[in-house]
């Protein structure tokens, strides 16, 4: 029952990137926690015994202490939701609210299963995104490696034989020869500068703030913006569906799921919640980023009219997840040839720089 730690945001839902090794305390995989606890309860184990079984299967002492802390609070008379809430952000607002509502409806195993199922769908979507990005990332890394090798070793070695013999070369080509020779002589300096630049880019991504900043930058890119908007909307509707199916009131579910939206949609969402409390229809108040698909408002209207809003929210989440997957495939199909073209131009440009001095020198020696 080893926990594969994933990063969850403030609302308790799955993020798009894996977290690094836990730096402080426990790092509970909430989907696995909900799945295992639901299965054990469904099998007939009492809650305290189920938590004890789960604690024994955890590899980290901090994780075992968290499970044991829940069990001790239950022995003291607290409810499961109270015990989970007392552990701060460890279990997230969404899961705590779902458990609290389940305690009123006596449907905890089924609701935990729904939470785990929604989280696993988002995990599958994240894995699809990562898998789709592997090939372009490999092409980029290999291409940059080839260009760095040609610039750092091959080009200086190739042009060093021409150093001091630049009288027959044009000014630009002569400067190129001198630049390539200097590049080879100071290889350690520019390699250190390159390493520092890579560290400056990669180190911030090891922290939650850096990853959040990266997602904000990606959200502004024209090609990625529609896909990210759909992705965050699908996460929002999936969490709302899980909460409402578990007995959480719709307005509270929307409020708990709001942190899953892009930053730019959170202020409109707060306004939408105020209008919803005033009695307006859900399809009329949600931000445009969530209703960009023409099917969504129609589904919401039907769900409210028929009283099947939780199931409707689940269908919307699945619909948006499918569209995200299709958009990712289209984006990758466009990105792969573009990267191959850029790598080819980079390598070809370096090769041309290598042969340009020889071509000019040979032409100057002809009678």
TrEMBL record:
GO terms for cellular component: plasma membrane
Keyword Transmembrane belongs to the record: yes
Listed transmembrane segments: 129-155, 189-207, 338-358
Keywords: Cell inner membrane, Cell membrane, Membrane, Transmembrane, Transmembrane helix
Signal sequence extent: none
Cross-referenced InterPro entries: GspF/PilC (IPR003004), T2SS_GspF_dom (IPR018076), T2SS_GspF_sf (IPR042094)
Chief localisation class: membrane
Domain Type II secretion system protein GspF: start-end pairs: 33-156, 236-357
Topological type in the membrane: Multi-pass membrane protein
A biological process term (GO) from this entry: protein secretion by the type II secretion system
Localization annotation: Cell inner membrane
One Pfam family from the record: T2SSF
Membership in a protein family: Belongs to the GSP F family.
Protein name: Type IV pilin biogenesis protein
Species of provenance: Pseudaquabacterium pictum
